[in-house]
Specification:
five-stranded antiparallel sheet; 24 helices; 32% helix; Penicillin-binding protein 2a (Domain 2); Nuclear Transport Factor 2, Chain: A; single chain
Length: 720
């Protein structure tokens, strides 16, 4: 039978092609597929859709299960580890108990990480045995190595681990636990230059309870008896007992040794009550030097892992601020410890590891307690700071007001005291000598004149005229001198002695137009704009403004007006009293810059004594001739006829190289500064006085400088 000259094959191809052009897919509901409508005589039938049979995924081998377990252990993924146990093991130990077992072992051993390596695996039908090696890196014991045997079973169509505690450590078994027995060391002392104690320890007794050992019928009576002894509210004791694990020792409160003796019989008769002696940090000088000595506190959450890696449990009090914080590792030493296995009945079974103790060392400071007390007495109840420093950098006194008592932090500060300190608007926790940043005002003119003579080649005799007003930035931007009537004709050197603002407006403008980097670079050479690097003192770096700083901070360029303000120590320039002390020491040393230091000696039973020497960190690029000019100008501040501080030092028996400063704040009264060193010819001591919002430096700060200087030489005479 013919189909109009089409062969049967051609006809089928044509039909299929037309279906493709029409975009026919699967027929809609109620329709008949096109191929099904073809004449049956063509012999064409729809091709059935093949049934896809997925390739079965092979089950993990015993080797794969063992490897996965060890890898999860190294990641600390205890949930994944627990899923690899067989059914009987999972019934025997829940996921939470399983994780706790590993975590407790890590905590007791002070492990910071674990590495595990599969050694071999032998399968015999539905059972397999694997061996693996583990190495625990611990903070107290170093590396602990162990060899383990792991049993696996093929159950319910897959391999799983038949878990035993020996997979944690071979010494463990059912009911056997690890215990860390530590030898607590006394924290090292902090001493002054005369070896007077600034921080030490005394023994106190911690009274606590083991809840499981207290009969229910006696609990309330025991709580009520304990409350007045430890000075803790009964409800607080009740809460501690209720929320603690029954078999743990729960500290309730501390009492001193004498109180412990008074209540010895009563405490001994209370079931479940225990007394445990331990050292308590004490600060016999109380507020004296508190910012320097520093405080203790709980380990910050952000640093918990770092402390744990050093062998801390996490519940210790550690140094947070001051020398206590800086010297934490040295003062605390390294605890001795034994890692033991304990039987279900509480008996010691074996010693897994041990570590020898390394006692904490003592830190001696350059601070003299008598001089520190005198500085704090002179400063009085004025917000501000006094720094007394040797020209080579060793600090003899650093007073800041208001202060606090480090004893408040010794046992963990209570919420009420902490709130009072934080909410005090005078910010007693801030060490104003090193953390308070203020405009240096006219003190900065020392930097400016050094830059003018060195970078611009200006002579000290260069003449200026001060009418009391300066319009170097244009008539629309007049600036005033502190002396409203003006200084008249005045040269560069006398401009420093008399602190003429107009002279230094000219200096700042000329330096900026020559090169905007000249004055900022000279300021940084003197130590401004970055922390001094003093060890054991918390500090801030202040600000040396320049074009880069202003663009980043304010989004605009550093203009002529900014440079003019900077030259007189105003505008954006900020410095700490400690940085200013460093600058004045540079003047006394003819350009040698030494790093300020407060730590003078470290004493350790293991490593002996380490002494700190003066540390020179820079040589200021100023010629000897220009240093002599600057020193002569500053001599006139206290001793010259037109010196800004001549009245404050009338009749003084010591020669002084010094400078007044009155820093405008724009809101309150200005900050008052006076800085200087003495004697003028052979400098022995640098002193800085800064008073917040006190008024003029010559009237408020200079008299305190004089008192401090006279106290220093009186103290020096007593020492000799």
């Amino acid at each position: 039978m013919a189909f109009n000259n089409f062969s049967r094959r051609a006809f089928i191809k044509a039909v299929l092609a037309s279906l493709a052009v029409a975009g026919c897919g699967a027929p809609k509901s109620g329709e008949v597929g096109a191929l099904e409508q073809l004449p049956s005589s063509l012999g064409v039938r729809p091709t059935p859709t093949p049934t896809l049979i997925p390739t079965p995924t092979p089950l993990p081998s015993a080797d794969g299960i063992a490897q996965a377990y060890l890898q999860a252990w190294q990641r600390g993924d205890f949930t994944a580890m627990h899923r690899l146990l067989n059914a009987s093991s999972r019934r025997r130990i829940s996921s939470g108990q399983f994780a706790a077992a590993y975590q407790n072992a890590a905590r007791q051993s002070t492990a910071v990480n674990v590495q595990a390596q599969l050694q071999s695996l032998l399968a015999d039908g539905p059972q397999a045995t694997a061996t693996f090696h583990s190495q625990w890196q611990t903070a107290l014991f170093g590396a602990l190595d162990a060899e383990h045997v792991m049993s696996l079973r093929f159950e319910e169509g897959q391999w799983a681990i038949d878990w035993q505690p020996t997979l944690i450590l071979p010494q463990l078994g059912r009911g056997v636990t690890l215990a860390l027995l530590e030898e607590q060391l006394e924290r090292g002392d902090i001493l002054d230059v005369q070896q007077q104690i600034l921080a030490s320890n005394e023994q106190v007794i911690t009274v606590g309870v083991v809840p499981a050992l207290i009969p229910d019928s006696d609990r309330q009576e025991i709580i009520e008896q304990l409350a007045p002894i430890v000075s803790v509210d009964a409800a607080e004791i009740e809460e501690k007992i209720v929320t603690a694990p029954p078999d743990w020792f729960v500290p309730v409160g501390d009492i001193d040794f004498d109180t412990s003796v008074v209540y010895l019989d009563l405490l001994a008769a209370m079931p479940g009550v225990e007394r445990r002696p331990h050292p308590l940090r004490v600060y016999p000088q109380e507020e004296t030097g508190a910012h320097l000595v520093g405080t203790l506190g709980g380990i910050p959450a952000s640093q918990a892992e770092a402390y744990r890696a050093q062998g801390y449990n996490g519940d210790e009090l550690v140094g947070i601020t001051g020398v206590e914080g800086w010297g934490e590792a040295f003062l605390a030493g390294k605890r001795g410890a034994k890692l033991l296995t304990i039987s279900p009945t509480g008996e010691t079974m074996a010693e897994v590891a041990s570590a020898q103790p390394s006692p904490g060392g003592n830190i001696s400071l350059s601070i003299d307690t008598q001089l520190q007390q005198q500085a704090e007495l002179i400063l009085g109840a004025r917000r501000g700071a006094i720094v007394v420093m040797e020209p080579t950098g060793f600090v003899k006194a650093m007073a800041s007001y208001p202060r606090f008592d480090s004893n408040d932090f010794a046992a963990g500060i209570n919420a009420e005291t902490w709130s009072q300190l934080l909410n005090n608007e005078d910010r007693p926790l801030v060490n104003r000598a090193a953390q308070g940043a203020y405009p240096p005002a006219s003190l900065f003119k020392i930097v400016s004149i050094a830059a003018a003579m060195e970078k611009l080649g200006w002579s000290p005799d260069r003449e200026f005229y001060c009418s009391g007003t300066w319009d170097g930035l244009g008539e629309n931007f007049p600036k005033k001198c502190w002396l409203e009537t003006g200084h008249g004709h005045i040269n560069l050197k006398d401009g420093l002695t008399q602190s003429c603002d107009v002279v230094f407006y000219e200096v700042g403008l000329a330096l900026h137009r020559e090169d905007p980097a000249l004055l900022p670079e000279m300021a940084r050479a003197f130590g401004f704009g970055q922390p001094t690097g003093i060890q054991g003192v918390d500090e801030t770096g202040g600000v040396v403004p320049d074009n880069e700083w202003k663009m980043e901070t304010l989004g605009e360029a550093f203009f002529d007006g900014d440079a003019v303000n900077m030259a007189i120590g105003q505008g954006y320039t900020l410095a700490t009293p400690l940085q200013v002390s460093q600058m004045m020491a540079v003047v006394s040393n003819d350009g040698l810059l030494y790093r300020p230091q407060i730590v003078q000696q470290l004493s350790s039973r293991d490593s002996g004594d380490q002494f700190f020497r003066p540390e020179q960190v820079n040589q200021i690029p100023v010629s000897p001739e220009n240093w002599a000019i600057i020193q002569n100008a500053l001599f006139g501040v206290a001793h010259g006829k037109r010196g800004t501080a001549r009245e404050a030092f009338a009749g003084i028996e010591y020669t002084i190289i010094g400078k007044t400063g009155t820093a405008e704040t724009g809101i309150d009264a200005p900050h008052a500064w006076f800085i200087g060193y003495s004697p003028a010819d052979i400098p022995e001591i640098v002193i800085v006085v800064m008073l917040e919002n006190a008024g003029e430096g010559s009237k408020e700060a200079a008299p305190l400088f004089r008192l401090m200087l006279e106290s220093y030489f009186d103290w020096l005479g007593k020492e000799e």
